[in-house]
Design goal:
Layout lengths: L2 H4 L3 H8 L2 E2 L4 E2 L38 H11 L12 E10 L18 E10 L14 E9 L2 E8 L12 H8 L15 H8 L5 H7 L14 E2 L4 E4 L5 E10 L8 H10 L3 H11 L5 E9 L1 H6 L19 E11 L3 H6 L12 E2 L4 H18 L79 H8 L3 H16 L4 H11 L4 H11 L38 E6 L5 H13 L3 E6 L5 E2 L5 E2 L3 E2 L10 E5 L2 H7 L3 H12 L4 E3 L4 H6 L10 E3 L4 H10 L8 H4 L3
Parallel strand pairs: 13-14, 13-18, 14-17, 18-19, 19-20
Antiparallel strand pairs: 1-2, 3-4, 3-11, 4-5, 5-6, 7-9, 8-9, 8-12, 9-10, 10-11, 15-16
Helix pairs in contact: 4-5, 5-14, 6-12, 13-15, 14-15, 16-20
Function: Decomposes hydrogen peroxide into water and oxygen; serves to protect cells from the toxic effects of hydrogen peroxide.
Cofactor: heme
Keywords: Heme, Hydrogen peroxide, Iron, Metal-binding, Oxidoreductase, Peroxidase
């Protein structure tokens, strides 16, 4: 008798093993009770999902195995093309609500009723990186909002920066090619610190304003909950009388603005590449719902004519000090997705999705976008019926004579599929209505030309305005970022061309960058399309530091503890932090936690080598005497303190932790941002200080280069 014949059937072997599977330690189960039956896509019950159908236990697999073939076929086709830009994103559901009616300016249904909730879906994204790229890449953040209004879907497909790199959509493919991986080598991933990007930028002076923004800390946000959103373009609002006003859309985070330091971002990308999505997921799951104010900057034709810049030029903004942002609504994200692919991946935003009462302007970037978004969805989602996918489907009835196509889900009944038809009444199907969308009848005339308007020609005045509106710390960060990025550029001529542009923006910045790059000869200023640069007034609204929060709410405190940690101090820290609405995480030598001084167990969320201080906004170090000795021999604990110190974080420490400062060589450098925890009331004082987020005064002291 052969060995094969003696072997028990594979099915029996699996069952006999009784292996624990899954986190809950459940064992291998078969259907029954409330455990549903596994089926094929055709609904056929499956008896064995562990083994393919073979000729004997060691023979070839049979083509007849329809279950195997279907399973493999489906797996092989799981991927859809990632977005050509904004591939990495994270979405959440919520609602939009007016706090003030805009009925005087627009007849859009969504603006009419104060307090009524309109369902919303928001997808945040980075632009350049592929789907698997890290969250803390220095990049613009997409801020795309879909509002499921009672008059159809309105998409505001914006960014966290109110201006853009280019003025005409025809340059978009070039911009993106230059920014993404270089085509021969396929790298670098998710970063602009390479020759192609800066070569393109150095030859595209209209991008200079945006360059100031992307070199600022706006592109390394602490969390998606702390970013602003902007519709960027000038749109139109049209009211019931047909009167049109111009408008720019704004989202302002309730928690204020906050970013991380560049060195922190670099380390975060290793420590937790999902830092932003995890943060959004966790805060929504914890019931701490992120919220933004919805604001509008409204202005008329007269203002547009008198304004120094063209309101159709997406490389310019309208300073909030000139046209204040009127807050009229709010956006709250209160529900995570059920399925990432179905919702976040398949959501399709189109700038062309506007509702009655909202209209476009002639901004040549917006006009081009209106083509691109619809077009890209066809490629990405595979057919013209992507609006049948639940995340894209309006929450109002859809009735028209469009039919068929790949994956058609909603197919009209009845005989009639054309219009006009003579069937009459309901049998004739849907008909147009005077209440339907009407384009604003703007008068347009002129010769056909490929030309850039003269009014778009000033590329430096607003770039300078942005720079001079930053606090000194922020200005330093912009200089540092430029030096960092350009130091990765291999071609000296490209570095020099950028410095030549900077000389038209700010001489000190240009000299700082030239010095930082070790440029021997500082180039002449670049030739400007419009030679006179205006010295515009400072705009405090452009600074993150001036628009940060005053409290530690929504932030995260990391408390490093060891065996024997002072229980009363730990409790006081936790209470003070959670009391202002902050989150707390414990880091310990082992994730199982430690026994505190009173014998209670402090459960840890991170083991010390997996919980570096970059994950936290502020840190406290509370070891026992023996624990401090242990930590001072542990490299990752020393990194924890060294990084928190270098990133200008507020650091609270129990007396025993002084040893760690000594071992890190920091004992002589301790400043007011390092706060001793002698008695429990010190914890409250520490959390209050953390409201300022960072002890920026330290930064200059820790950087010599
Ligand atoms: Fe774009 C995606 C924002 C200019 C073409 N864009 C995309 C997304 C955001 C923006 C947030 C991601 C949407 C999502 O989460 O699915 N894009 C902007 C902003 C711009 C801008 C604020 C300038 C003001 N974009 C722009 C131009 C073009 C495009 C000039 C082309 C003419 N953008 C696209 C696209 C994408 C896209 C190729 C890729 C995936 C998608 O649309 O759905 O159509």
């Amino acid at each position: 008798m052969s060995q094969t014949n003696n072997a028990p059937p594979a099915q029996a072997r699996i069952a006999d093993l009784d292996v624990p599977v899954g986190q809950g330690g459940e064992v291998q189960q078969t259907a029954g009770g409330d455990v549903p039956v596994l089926t094929t896509q055709q609904g056929i019950p499956v008896s064995d999902d562990q083994n393919s159908l073979k000729v004997g236990p060691r023979g070839p697999t049979l083509l007849e195995d329809f279950h195997f073939r279907e399973k493999m076929f489906h797996f092989d086709h799981e991927r859809i093309p990632e977005r050509v830009v904004h591939a990495r994103g994270f979405g959440a559901h919520g609602y939009f609500e007016m706090t003030e009616s805009l009925a005087d300016l627009s007849h859009a249904d969504v603006f009419q009723r104060v307090g009524e909730k309109t369902p919303a879906f928001v997808r945040f994204s980075t632009v350049a990186g592929n789907k698997g790229s890290p969250d803390l890449a220095r990049d613009v953040r997409g801020f795309a909002v879909k509002l499921y209004t009672q008059e159809g879907n309105w998409d505001i497909v914006g960014n966290n920066i109110p201006v853009f790199f280019i003025q005409d959509a025809i340059k978009f493919p070039d911009l993106i090619h230059a920014a993404k991986q270089e085509p021969d080598r396929g790298f670098p991933q998710a970063q602009t610190a390479h020759d192609n990007f800066w070569d393109f930028i150095s030859l595209t002076p209209e991008s200079m304003h945006m360059i100031m923004w992307i070199m600022s800390d706006r592109t390394i946000p602490r969390s998606l909950r702390f970013i602003e959103g902007f519709g960027v373009h000038t749109f139109r609002l049209v009211n019931a009388e047909g009167k049109s006003s111009f408008v720019k859309f704004h989202w302002k985070p309730k928690l204020g603005l906050q970013s991380v330091a560049w060195n922190e971002a670099v380390k975060l990308n290793g420590a937790d590449p999902d830092f932003h999505r995890r943060d959004l997921w966790a805060s929504i799951q914890a019931g701490d719902f992120p919220e933004w104010e919805f604001g509008v900057q409204v202005f008329d034709e007269e203002f547009a004519k008198s304004f120094d810049f063209d309101v159709l030029d997406a490389t310019k903004l309208i300073p909030e000090e000139l046209v204040p942002v009127r807050v009229v609504g709010r956006l709250v994200l209160d529900r995570v997705v059920d399925n990432f692919f179905a919702e976040t991946e398949q959501v399709a935003f189109c700038t062309s999705n506007v509702v009655p009462g909202i209209d476009f302007t002639n901004d040549p970037l917006l006009q081009g976008r209106n083509f691109s978004y619809l077009d890209t969805q066809l490629k990405r989602l595979g057919g013209p019926n992507f609006t049948h996918i639940p995340i894209n489907a309006p929450k109002v009835p859809v009735r028209n004579f469009q039919q068929d196509g790949h994956m058609a889900m909603h197919n009209p009944k009845g005989r009639v599929n054309y219009e006009p038809n003579g069937w009459g009444g309901a049998a004739g199907g849907p008909r147009q209505t005077p209440r339907g969308y009407r384009s604003f009848p703007a008068e347009e005339a002129g010769p056909k030309l490929r030309i850039r308007a003269e009014s778009f020609a000033d590329h430096y005045s607003q770039a300078r305005q942005f720079f001079v509106s930053q606090t000194p710390v922020e200005q330093t960060h912009i200089g540092d970022a430029l030096v960092f990025e350009l130091s990765k550029v291999e071609t000296p001529a490209i570095r020099a061309r950028i410095v030549a542009h900077l000389r038209n923006i700010d001489e000190t910045l240009a000299q700082t960058v030239a010095k930082g790059l070790g440029l021997k000869d500082v180039p002449e200023p670049a030739t400007a399309a419009r030679p006179t640069r205006q010295d515009l007034p400072q705009s405090p609204a452009l600074s993150i530091a001036l628009n940060g929060p005053e409290s530690f709410k929504g932030r995260k405190l990391g408390i490093l503890v060891t065996e024997g940690a002072d229980a009363a101090m730990v409790a006081a820290l936790k209470e003070a932090a959670t009391g202002v609405g902050a989150m707390v995480e414990f880091i310990a030598p082992v994730v199982g936690g430690v026994s505190a001084s009173d014998g209670s167990v402090i459960e840890a969320q991170q083991k010390v080598n997996g919980g570096p201080s970059v994950l936290y906004d502020a840190v406290a170090i509370v070891p026992s005497e023996a624990g401090a000795k242990l930590l001072s021999r542990e490299a990752t604990a020393k990194d924890f303190l060294n990084d928190a110190f270098a990133h200008a974080k507020f650091i609270a420490y129990a007396p025993a932790a002084k040893l760690l400062f000594e071992k890190c060589g920091l004992a002589g450098d301790m400043d007011e941002g390092c706060m001793a925890l002698n008695k429990p009331v010190d914890a409250a004082a520490f959390i209050k200080a953390c409201g300022k987020l960072r002890f920026w005064a330290r930064e200059a002291a820790v950087h010599a280069v």
